[in-house]
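**User:**
My hope is that you can spare some time for a protein that puzzles me. This is the protein in question:
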Amino acid sequence: MLQPTPATPGAAQQFTAFTPYEPVPGEEYMSPAQIAHFQKILEDWRGELMAEVDRTVQHMQMENVNYSDPNDRASLETDMGLELRARDRERKLIRKISQALDRIKAGEYGYCESCGVEIGLRRLEARPTATLCIDCKTLEEKREKQMAQD
């Protein structure tokens, strides 16, 4: 069973407690077994994030209290703001997960969308929503850094 572990409090969760996939010698990249492995990771991760969204909605409905003390009200509003920002990040992550699942259905998962090479099993286990190989991602980050300096 996959277990979510947050990197930092309030951060989007990343699944890390799964058995890494060990390819059979001679196994083709993105074989049906590999696809099933990544599909399970993505679906379980999305399910956990959706459950967290539901818990947040319930929590916010229960916390709908009107405090008369301005400090209490400000504290509650700050907490709610932080919670909403975390959920917004998770909403974006859920969209990326859904896009990755769509790529699985289309037979495009695991290949760099820029150059078409294999992304690699270990990179996909580290970041199941990855769309770029490590070389293209490094180039993209360098370009972004250069654009920010201009």
Notes: The first helix runs from residue 32 to 62. Confidence is low (pLDDT under 50) at residues 1-12.
